[in-house]
Design brief:
Length: about 425
């Protein structure tokens, strides 16, 4: 049995270099947790439902990208920006989440993020004159990127704080929900477009589930008014993951994971259609691939928590994801379901274990939220270059072969950094 919610179990702490265990101080009291089992379950459900809304903005746009481009006359620069900007914004806004959480409380900030996400999703589909289409898409994308960045950072810290006794389960559930979010966007946006005859409705429809989560989070935010962690003690004020070799190894792992992950959301459907797959079938293939991501996301954190270290696990899932991506571009089209399935399983597990490293490599919720802000700020900021480079390589070569070579390299680098991040070491805390 682990400690109750709100207490972080003591574990081995590294020395100043982050590579040798030293004695651990007593358990650190964190912000008040839910006061009853029912409240804890309700919070867990909200965490999962938030995750279920964090990727539809990416996969919904790419699912009907040719239709949007044709109907709205999007210039090539706009397509590149709209597929790249959301991931870049995750890196830009992620560092602000820990500061906001310390000042206003994680639940209140999460509620605000979901309000902003619902508004951004709705804005992308507003029926405005043709000349306002690109500015509106950009504005909605900006709002969504900022909101998702905050949600990405806060969910792992809430799990670390309130679900230490069920760390593998909750990490698996919320990362699975994130993968499911992408699957829903990829699989349902094209049918919604066909049913309504409007690409605007296909995009704006995803504001409804986000608005529902806003309503569910209202009582949570009202009940949790204290921040995710109390003001740091004088001796802990200087603790920073930015000076930790362990934190930089995890961050490098996140960079290459993000390069592949968001390139899947943005470009897998166009890759399939470029290979001759029709739009409806491409949407189903991408959705099934992302559903398999859910399988990897569900089981990988539980396995990671049980292992003495995660070196082999991290390297294997990175190579699975990279290999699946490369084969989806170069492999025989008759086996496309196999290649995209391998990609889905590998990518789901890869994303999940990268996020699980936040909890496994920290001893407190305070450090977890700092590490989360660092690794996701840098990880998504640099990881967004993946979608951008694919777009540039497509424009320069007229095909996706060069992108296939790029992702062979990216997968190998993810395996190298994953091996380093998987060592049983923790970010230093005093």
């Amino acid at each position: 049995m682990g400690p109750g919610p709100g207490l972080v179990a003591p574990g081995p702490a590294p020395d100043a270099r982050g590579d040798r265990p030293v004695p651990t101080p007593p358990a650190v009291q964190q912000a008040p947790a839910p006061t009853s089992r029912r409240a804890l379950v309700y919070l867990g459900v909200c965490v999962v439902l938030v995750g279920l809304n964090l990727r539809t903005v990416f996969s919904s746009f790419s699912a009907i990208l040719p239709e949007i481009t044709a109907a709205a006359g999007l210039p090539s620069w706009a397509v590149t920006v709209l597929t790249t900007a959301p991931v870049t914004l995750l890196g830009v806004f992620a560092p602000f989440a820990p500061r906001l959480a310390r000042r206003y409380g994680a639940e209140a900030v999460l509620l605000g993020a979901m309000v902003l996400l619902a508004a951004g999703l709705a804005a992308r589909g507003l029926p405005l004159p043709a000349g306002a289409t690109v500015p509106l898409l950009l504005a909605g994308t900006l709002a969504c990127g900022a909101a998702i960045a905050v949600g990405n950072v806060l969910l792992p810290s809430i799990v670390k704080r309130d679900f230490t006794h069920r760390l593998g389960l909750m990490s698996g559930l919320y990362t699975t929900a994130i993968a499911a979010s992408a699957a829903l966007g990829a699989g349902l946006t094209y049918p919604l477009f066909q049913a309504t005859g409007s690409w605007r409705a296909g995009l704006a429809g995803w504001a409804a589930p986000a608005a529902l989560v806003v309503l569910l989070l209202l009582p949570v935010a009202a009940r949790h008014r204290s921040p995710v962690s109390p003001a740091p003690a004088a001796g802990a004020a200087g603790d920073s993951p930015w000076r930790s070799p362990v934190a930089w190894q995890i961050t490098g792992f996140m960079v290459f994971q993000a390069m592949m992950s968001f390139s899947v959301f943005a470009w897998l459907a166009p890759i399939l259609r470029d290979r001759g797959v029709d739009g409806a079938t491409a949407g189903v293939i991408v959705a099934v691939s992302i559903l398999l991501q859910m399988t990897g996301s569900l089981f990988a954190p539980a396995l990671a928590v049980r292992l003495a270290d995660q070196r082999v696990l991290n390297a294997v899932v990175a190579l699975m994801a990279g290999g699946g991506f490369v084969l989806s571009i170069f492999g025989p089209l008759q086996l496309i379901w196999v290649w995209t399935g391998l990609l889905g399983l590998g990518q789901g597990a890869l994303t999940a274990v990268a996020l699980t490293m936040i909890a496994l490599r920290t001893r407190s919720a305070a450090m977890a939220v700092r590490l989360s802000g660092m690794m996701q700020g840098v990880g998504y900021g640099l990881g967004s270059s993946g979608t951008f480079l694919v777009g540039q390589l497509l424009h320069a070569t007229g095909g996706f072969a060069a992108a296939g070579v790029m992702f062979a390299v990216v997968g190998a680098l993810a395996a190298v950094f994953g091996w380093q991040a998987g060592r049983d070491r923790a970010v230093q805390e005093r």
